[in-house]
């Protein structure tokens, strides 16, 4: 707080006053009782459905089997090789794409109930996709988009063989995922176990490859690689991802903070400043989600410490700034578009009041510009001079979805309606949906990102129709691909979870998440599991255990820490 500019202080005080008045129904939040009729809900569901098909059909017509659509020129781009590659170095000479946007669309097709198109896509990929291509790709991007997309689609496809009555499904997507996972493994062969950020799918790590990577780049691989190990019985994928994650965690400062970029050969930090946005975001997300999916206490302990440090050093009222991992001193006072996922993560852990508070500020900035700018300077309440784009990002819709699931407050359905209206009016063109180059002019860019199909459309659709989720629990990867929470996977790891014959699992214990209703009672009412956790606190700080509700991952009562945050302390129970 020492570096805080006085103008910013005033702004923050005004915001806090404003939020207080919101709760009395006068501020920028809801000021009236809102109702969202079932007819309106159906109408919104159809609006989102139309958005998805407009994007998907145009991709299939003009870009497939290349990676992504150029919606302004009805053309394609083989962008898997370009993701994260800002200087466009080492681009492949002879690469014709991997049908990236189709892979990303598969689980959304099922969320929309389109079994026939899902089946058609699965069959095409089964026969035509290969990773034996001379292309250098970003490990993180390829993991979350391609490996995650294939694994999720494989699990969903094998759950309902009736979709494949004419042409049986033969686990081909899993074989493809396994092949891809094996191509990832050479990236992990470093003295530290931290993976290179880049890998050539055919030739492995190239000579003189950059040794710099980001925290999210090497710390958010565990969901996809862990699931791949559980599905194949080959523990190398999970082992490599877990080793990297442990190494990264051991590099934290005494304040439990991490930096943003690091050297994979030396294990030294390059950038000591970090926040919850670009370069770090999914690291936090995967600690919690790995705990939910695999039930290993180690993930919970890491998440818990990391979460408390974020709330202590990065949070300022409803906003999050960046700080130096060594001193905890604030560095950059900026809101970035990627940070908007955080309220969704907070909702998942049961910190609903804090999530609600931040979500309202992100939505405020969204409304101020029509869409969310990539960077917004908190001190001046203005756009960043250069990072003024909006590449169809899903994070605000994602958080809105989680908050609606947790609260059923129809206000979030109105937020979704406003997001859909903005997307349709500012980004829809005849040939699909185009990214915004500059939110101050709404000038467009010729790029329809694949995550628009896998995430933005999916989370908006689930706001109005969540029948896909009925009767079960899913963890959504950071790319929006659903992985079902299975009691078989939900056990202590990693030691010897595979039997000596390598084919089956040693133990399985029923996870509280695998049943839809928790056994716990709170204030006489049965508490639903996973995303349906009430938070009884009036603001994001607690004074007593009673204010903390139930932990969404274990269904156990949470306790209020000395620092005033709700958490789960197993020793207490
Ligand atoms: C979210 O904030 C608004 C405005 O302060 C308030 O009316 C609403 O009750 C809050 N919801 C939750 C779940 O905290
Ligand atoms: C479409 O993109 C390809 C690959 O970049 C390019 O070679 C081709 O000229 C483009 N076609 C048009 C009509 O722009
Ligand atoms: C990519 O497409 C071009 C043009 O159709 C073709 O000549 C080339 O062989 C293809 N490359 C691969 C690796 O399939
Ligand atoms: C499934 O998607 C395909 C391709 O967009 C479309 O032609 C078909 O009508 C869809 N089916 C349903 C049931 O929505
Ligand atoms: C494989 O790709 C070719 C060319 O696009 C297509 O004709 C064929 O139908 C595809 N295979 C399947 C099973 O879809
Ligand atoms: C399988 O899919 C069909 C629709 O094609 C659906 O009616 C059925 O309920 C599904 N079965 C399971 C077990 O999910
Ligand atoms: C499967 O069979 C049905 C009816 O026999 C047909 O309408 C459908 O197109 C077939 N699907 C595929 C992918 O071949
Ligand atoms: C790798 O770096 C070394 C030393 O700088 C240089 O001699 C060599 O030519 C480089 N190799 C490639 C393929 O760029
Ligand atoms: C593998 O080992 C497990 C536990 O020992 C046993 O139940 C299972 O039948 C074995 N599978 C094979 C294929 O031998």
Automatic annotation (TrEMBL):
Record keywords, A-Z: Calcium, Endoplasmic reticulum, Glycoprotein, Glycosidase, Hydrolase, Metal-binding, Signal
Subcellular location: Endoplasmic reticulum
EC number: 3.2.1.-
GO cellular component, one term: endoplasmic reticulum quality control compartment
Family: Belongs to the glycosyl hydrolase 47 family.
Protein name per the record: alpha-1,2-Mannosidase
Signal peptide per UniProt: 1-22
Pfam families reported in the protein's UniProt record: Glyco_hydro_47
GO MF annotation list: calcium ion binding; mannosyl-oligosaccharide 1,2-alpha-mannosidase activity
List of residues binding Ca(2+): 478
PANTHER family: ER DEGRADATION-ENHANCING ALPHA-MANNOSIDASE-LIKE PROTEIN 1 (PTHR45679:SF5), ER DEGRADATION-ENHANCING ALPHA-MANNOSIDASE-LIKE PROTEIN 2 (PTHR45679)
InterPro entries named among the record's database cross-references: 6hp_glycosidase-like_sf, EDEM1/2/3, Glyco_hydro_47, Seven-hairpin_glycosidases
Protein origin, superkingdom: Eukaryota
């Amino acid at each position: 707080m020492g570096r805080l500019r006085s103008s910013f202080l005033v702004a923050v005080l005004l915001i806090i006053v404003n939020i207080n008045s919101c709760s009395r129904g006068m501020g920028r939040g809801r000021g009236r009782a809102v109702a969202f009729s079932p007819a309106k809900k159906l109408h919104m569901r159809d609006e989102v459905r139309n958005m998805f098909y407009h994007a998907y059909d145009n991709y299939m017509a003009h870009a497939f089997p290349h990676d992504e659509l150029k919606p302004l020129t009805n053309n394609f781009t083989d962008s898997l090789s370009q993701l994260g590659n800002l200087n466009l170095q080492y681009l492949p000479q002879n690469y014709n794409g991997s049908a990236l946007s189709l892979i990303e669309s598969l689980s959304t097709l099922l969320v929309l109930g389109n079994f026939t198109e899902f089946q058609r896509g699965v069959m095409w990929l089964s026969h035509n996709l290969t990773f034996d291509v001379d292309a250098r790709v970003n490990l993180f991007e390829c993991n979350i988009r391609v490996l995650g997309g294939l694994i999720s689609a494989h699990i969903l496809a094998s759950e309902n063989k009736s979709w494949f009555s004419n042409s049986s499904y033969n686990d081909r997507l899993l074989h493809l995922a396994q092949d891809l996972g094996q191509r990832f493994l050479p990236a992990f062969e470093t003295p530290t176990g931290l993976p290179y950020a880049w890998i050539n799918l055919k030739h492995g790590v190239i000579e003189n490859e950059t040794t710099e990577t980001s925290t999210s780049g090497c710390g958010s691989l565990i969901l996809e690689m862990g699931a791949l190990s559980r599905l194949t019985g080959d523990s190398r994928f999970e082992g490599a991802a877990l080793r990297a994650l442990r190494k990264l965690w051991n590099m934290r400062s005494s304040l439990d903070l991490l930096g943003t970029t690091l050297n994979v050969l030396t294990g030294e930090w390059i950038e000591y400043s970090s926040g919850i946005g670009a370069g770090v975001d999914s690291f936090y997300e995967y600690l919690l989600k790995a705990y939910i999916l695999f039930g290993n206490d180690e993930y919970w302990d890491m998440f818990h410490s990391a979460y408390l440090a974020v709330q202590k050093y990065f949070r300022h009222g409803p906003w999050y700034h960046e700080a130096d991992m060594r001193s905890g001193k604030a560095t950059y006072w900026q809101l970035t578009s990627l940070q908007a996922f955080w309220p969704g993560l907070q909702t998942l852990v049961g910190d609903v009041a804090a999530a609600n508070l931040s979500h309202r500020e992100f939505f405020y900035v969204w409304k101020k510009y029509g869409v969310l700018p990539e960077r917004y300077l908190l001190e001046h309440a203005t756009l960043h001079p250069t990072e003024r784009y909006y590449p169809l990002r899903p994070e605000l819709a994602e958080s809105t979805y989680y908050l609606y699931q947790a609260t059923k407050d129809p206000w979030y359905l109105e937020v979704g309606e406003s997001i859909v209206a903005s997307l349709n009016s500012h980004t829809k063109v005849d040939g699909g949906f185009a990214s915004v180059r500059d939110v101050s002019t709404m000038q467009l860019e010729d790029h329809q990102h694949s995550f628009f199909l896998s995430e933005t459309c999916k989370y908006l659709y689930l706001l109005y129709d969540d029948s896909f989720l009925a009767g079960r629990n899913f963890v959504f990867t950071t790319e929006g691909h659903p992985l079902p929470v299975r009691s078989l996977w939900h056990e202590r790891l990693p030691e010897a979870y595979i039997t000596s014959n390598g084919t089956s699992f040693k133990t399985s214990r029923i996870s509280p998440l695998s049943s839809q209703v928790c056994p716990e009672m709170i204030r006489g009412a049965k508490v639903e599991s996973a995303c349906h956790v009430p938070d009884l606190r009036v603001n994001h700080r607690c004074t007593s255990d009673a204010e903390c509700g139930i932990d969404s991952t274990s269904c156990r009562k949470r306790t209020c820490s000395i620092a005033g945050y709700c958490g789960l302390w197993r020793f207490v129970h």
